[in-house]
Amino acid sequence: MFTQKACCRNSAHMLPVTDWLADLPDNVAENDLVEIQFKNTRKGYYHNVNHLPLEKGVCVIVDANPGYDLGEVVLTGRLVKAQMKKNNIDLSRYEIRNVQRLAQESDHERAAAAHAREQETMIKARQLAKSLGLEMKIGDVEFQADGSKAIFYYIADGRVDFRQLIKVYAETFRIRIEMKQIGARQEAGRIGGTGPCGRELCCSTWLTNFSSVGTGAARLQRISPNPQKLAGQCAKLKCCLNYEVPVYEDALKRGEVIGTPVANEEQEVDLGFQNAVGEGALNRFDRHKMNNNTRRPERGERRDRPNRNDKNDRQKPNNNRPQ
């Protein structure tokens, strides 16, 4: 019997969602909408028309155009509408498809075979775009689970006429092509990584709306205008520069000065360490001084001896010696 499992394709750290209302009664029955996550940060909203027992982490087969796709349920119940409102999704304009069924083992195997073509397809797609002289970069390729369609994510500074490129892609890869333009911040979110703070990138973990970041945010916080330190992995200004801007603006209006506590270097802090060798003190390894206030020479060290070649140090003859 097949056991339902989570999609290993989706990273657990890519825009995770916590369903705080999952344990409440009648939470799922109140709303049949579910949020489905696909590769990396791509998500969609679907109707659970068949009233399947869906919960977070379950893989399902959903309607696509054309064919079907395989995704992972990340949110159910009444919080789905709140999530859609947060992402500025208009229900009157957004096409909501249906969840077909729970994913089976054969669905995972077919989806894995389709996803295995993505890396090779991306490299070939970059070469074809370059041969046509297009000023664009193919950042990622995402195959549909049934292998009938692929989304090509590209980055470009301006408008690109890729009508000829789509024809070449369709003839080369024998699939339906969809081109989707993304920015540098969105590309970093799809790829993922670790920031200089030691944590995963905000754009790949929780940040969904990318607001403009200017150098005025750094000047307001009196941060050194060093481009290498202010730029993130996307080569744009770091999104975290905007996090504390409202606090600094309110402080300036009130005439307050924002500072950070300075640690006192002379203050002794008890770290709670214990002596692991009993009552012995750590200075027991120190060499004891000799009684004559001299020290023994270390191994390989020469004693200080008078230089025999120095004429001033030669022993002078004693003229008072009896003849």
Overview of this protein structure:
It is built from nine helices and eight strands. With 323 residues, the protein is of the alpha+beta class. Among the domains are: 80 residues, no CATH class; 69 residues, GMP Synthetase, Chain A, domain 3 (2-Layer Sandwich); 44 residues, no CATH class. A five-stranded mixed beta barrel has the order 1-2-5-3-4. It has a three-stranded mixed beta sheet with strand order 6-7-8, sandwiched between helices. Helix 3 packs across helix 4. It is globular, with a radius of gyration of 34 Å.
What helical percentage do the residues reach?
A: 10-25%
The total of beta strands comes to 8
Order of helices and strands: EEEEHEHHEEHEHHHHH
Distance between the termini: 121 Å
Overall, the morphology is globular
Largest sheet: 5 strands, mixed, barrel
Low-confidence stretches: 277-285
Structural class: alpha+beta
Strand order of the largest sheet: 1-2-5-3-4
Please tell me how large the radius of gyration is.
Answer: 34 Å
Q: Overall pLDDT, averaged?
A: 80
Strand content: 15-25%
Number of helices: 9
How are the SSEs ordered, and which strands pair?
Layout: E1 33-37, E2 43-47, E3 59-63, E4 68-76, H1 79-86, E5 97-102, H2 105-115, H3 118-131, E6 137-143, E7 149-155, H4 163-173, E8 176-181, H5 184-191, H6 202-205, H7 215-220, H8 227-230, H9 245-254
Parallel strand pairs: 2-5, 7-8
Antiparallel strand pairs: 1-2, 1-4, 3-4, 3-5, 6-7
Helix pairs in contact: 3-4
Short description:
It is built from nine helices and eight strands.
